[in-house]
Amino acid sequence: MLSTFHGIETGKKGLMSNNMGIQTTGHNLSNVETEGYSRQKVNLSTTIPLYEPSANRVEVPGQIGTGVQVEDIQRVRDQAIDDRINYEKGGLGYWETKQKFLHQLETIFNEPDKPNLRTVLDDFWESWQKLAADPTEQASRLELIQRAELLAKTMNHTYNSVYDLRQNVNLLIEQKIAEINHIAREIATLNIQIVKSEAMGDKPNDLYDKRDLLADRLSKIVDIRIERNNKHELIVYIGTENLVQGGKVHEVRGVGEPENDGLTAVLWDDGRQVKLGAGELAGLMDVRDNDLRKALQNLNSLAVNITDTTNEVHRDGFGLNLTTNNNFFKEIPLSPVANGDYDFNNDGIFDGVAIFRVSGTERLDEHTVIGSSGFLNFGPSRFNGQDVLIQYQATDKVKDVIERINQSDAGVVAYLNHKGQLSLKAKIPEDRRFPQFVIRHIEDSGNFLVGVAGILSESGANGAFDYRTPGNITKFNVPAENVALTFQKNQGAWFGLDEKILANPDSIAAAAGIDTNGDGDPDRINGLGDNRNALQIAELRHRKIMIEERSSASDFIKAMIGDFGTRSEAAIVNMDKNKAVVDSLENLRKQISGVNVDEELSKMIMYQHGYNASARLVSVIDRMIETLIRMGA
Amino acid sequence: MNPRVTQSFIVNDFNVNLKSRMNELQKTQNKLASGYRINLPSDDPVGTILYMDYEHRLKEVQTYQRIIEDGKARLNMIDSSLESATTIIQRLRELAIQGANGTYTKEDREKMAVEVDQLLRELLNIANMYYKDTPLFGGTTISDKPFKPQFKVDENTGIEYLENVRYMGNNQARILEVDRGERVDVTPPGNQIFWAENMEIYSTLNVSGYVAQKDSKILVDGVEIAINAGDNLEVIANKINDAGLAVKASIQTQEGQSYFALETTSPHQISLLDLDGGTVLQDLGIIDHGMYPPNNYSPAARVFTGSVFDVMINFRKALLSDNVFQIGGRAVVGIDNSLGNLLKYRAHMGAVTARLDNIFNRLTSDNVYLEDAKQNTIGTDIAKAMMDLKALEFSHDVALNVGARILPRTLLDFLR
């Protein structure tokens, strides 16, 4: 037998459920524009009908419905899309960051059609040509000084801009590390709240949304993977390590790395490196440690080689004031003492010697046959690695050995200088633990570097030069001016003219001279109106002075710009590609989780009608009961 | 499956499309406004490198063109001065032929001597000419006039004559680089142009049995010749003769004594120096200790210099001493040699000028080609860019229009 008030109860349930629907629709409509919001859906179901099968059930036809109830309020979301977005966003963040900074790098170099390093370098060589055409003209000397100064200023400015950019990137890295930790902590807090709500049987949809939004933001910074398998513990991984595990956060931290110019490395709490695959942070690290570092190294290399090769020729020439052995560009040695001894490990005691270049005493032709065999040893190319050995035969020509040295991993490059002397020049080591522009080891088991080239005084291990022994400069059997000490760091920043040149333009050595006493250094001027030295310097424009890259200075810059351009272009292409993927995935997510106003409005109308109908049901039942009561009155 | 379209999806889509369209518009607008297709290397890395190459070469070409113009100005100056010198020497030749004629008297020859002296002074002025504040014919010296005169009053006539002219310049030619790796001499030094006869240096030092004591080098006319310890006279002489120079070394033997001698095979002054701390040429009695070229010959050596001035001064002396045979013989021959040498250098300078013209013309066409290539690489194709811009503008308008129609529409608009 149905209760008298059964209908009222059914009506009430309808009222409540439709009300809930209206509220949820309202919530959806209010959050049309809320970032990360997923639409929520009220799942309705019928309440338990009457009667359950049992022996004492009322004997009426059944079952009879008892109305509606709210099963749950569910957010509409496809977690698989979320995971894919998280994955793609890492790539997007990476390329966006790369593109942003490569673009800035391109702007610093000011190519192609504005005054820039390449054009002022061209102007500089051109001034030497003009000086060679008019060696005694004051105007051409002054113009040369001005253009050389402009070259130096442009180099300094370019270097400093890239340097500052690199420091900025480092600051951003630190900010990103802080951001990662901040987001990780927020996710952990949400994890705790969510687990609590779920324990109460609720669906904390808005908390889910918030957490997904945070994961979204995090996935752009660093490549994360989210594991939701365990209902009680959401885990956020970076690589294979977890950053967040339920309510626990394993923070990452930034630590200055002395081997990388004191810049920040990203480490786990226990000091292990965080392995970054994608994301803004990886992009920043990559820009800082590859693109910008390479740019700085290139500029240093350019400054060092222009300084060294120009000075090498310039010192042999004579100025209008009859002075010789002047540098054109400033040289600031790393070592505080004249023999190049240097304290590499900073403990206050000299523990090595910093020499950049050594030239032999003998004049060689590249076709000279060596006439004896042996092998050269240039020490290891990696820290604690194997020695780089280069073998030569009696029938080899000088150019063959030079070629072999330059193609090897030796820490030096070899070439014949303008006087035909064999020169060995240090390069930037691949292994960061070695000092830059420092000759590390030179040893010859035979006679090539000893008697033929006149660099070492003795063959074998006894006569070997090694940079870790102070005072080892004496192993070189050459006059002091054939040895160039390593310059101070950041050569691009202090690259500039020698004071003597600035003080007196007549010190510019346009004239060549004769070596009358046979010490390899010209001591008698050819004539004040001579231009042979200026011609020789002007010729450096085409000489492959960037020996490591086998290119002239201009070609080196060209290749560098081309490289930036290509990388920047690739970054743009990759960024666009990733952006398109992320956009379409986000659109897909919006299709599923986004709020459609029309849909919500139509639902609202339905719920409204449902509500009205339930209310009507209650009033009908009310009237029915009233009829009954009146009958009894 | 039909996608479920939501408002935020439409708005997002609209925004993304609009942004990329704006981006394109901005790029095209930039191309048109700047006139450049490439504004950053990433716009076209390959094009950028090409552009840099063109610009690099273009600058170089323009510099070489300026240098060539300057070199040609110098060559013109040389040519006109050598032309005057030729006229003077031709007049001297006429005088020599007149002077050698027996019909003229001693007084006539004294008058001729005065004219010769005046002509010689004019020739000296030409030889000491300056261009851009440096002497034209002093090699690479700049400080003094390259030809230094000495005057002497003749005891008989009481007239001051030019007595001696010494060359103070050096033997370095002036070099210009007129294209990559192409060098030309634009001014041969005065001790080549103003030379008439072969130079001869006879040492008076007996050096029989001389052997070089140590390895060293000697410098002959700017060429280094290596002398090894133990080289004897023949070896040294052979090394000089084999060096490909216009200098011949020989050993004169008289009564068992050996003397070293050098002579030129084309008229010029020999430049000699011991290098590497060696003393070979000094030991042989050819050059003086502690002196540098030119004019560092040993005082003990007999030196016949043979410059144009030496020839003319001897001619003038012969006129004064009324030596008809010498005038008709040595003087005329010497003047002819002077003229021949001068004309040889004028021809050489003419050839250099022609070569410079050639290079200049080549550089001019390079210039045109490079300028063109540069513009083609970096310049905007205006017509194409305008068409692109128009197309973009149109689709942009359409997108905005459609957006404006669709975006605000919801069911709400139709509910009362």
Describe the structure.
The complex is a heterodimer of chains A (633) and B (416). Chain A has helices spanning 6-30, 79-109, 117-133, 138-199, 205-221, 279-314, 398-407, 448-452, 491-494, 499-503, 532-539, 553-593, 597-632; strands at 40-46, 68-75, 224-227, 235-238, 241-245, 248-249, 252-257, 263-268, 341-342, 352-353, 355-363, 374-380, 387-392, 412-416, 421-426, 441-444, 465-466, 483-485, 513-514, 524-525. With 633 residues, chain A is of the alpha+beta class. The radius of gyration of chain A is 39 Å and the shape is elongated. The model of chain A has no long low-confidence stretch (mean pLDDT 90). With 416 residues, chain B is of the alpha+beta class. In chain B, a hairpin with a 6-residue loop joins strand 3 (147-153) and strand 4. The interface between A and B is large, with 66 and 70 residues.
Give keywords.
heterodimer; A: 633 residues; four-stranded antiparallel β-sheet; elongated; B: 416 residues; alpha+beta; three-stranded antiparallel β-sheet; 52% helix
Give a brief description.
By secondary structure, chain A is α+β, with helices and mostly antiparallel strands. Chain A has helices at 6-30, 79-109, 117-133, 138-199, 205-221, 279-314, 398-407, 448-452, 491-494, 499-503, 532-539, 553-593, 597-632; strands at 40-46, 68-75, 224-227, 235-238, 241-245, 248-249, 252-257, 263-268, 341-342, 352-353, 355-363, 374-380, 387-392, 412-416, 421-426, 441-444, 465-466, 483-485, 513-514, 524-525. In chain A, 47% of the residues lie in helices and 15% in strands.
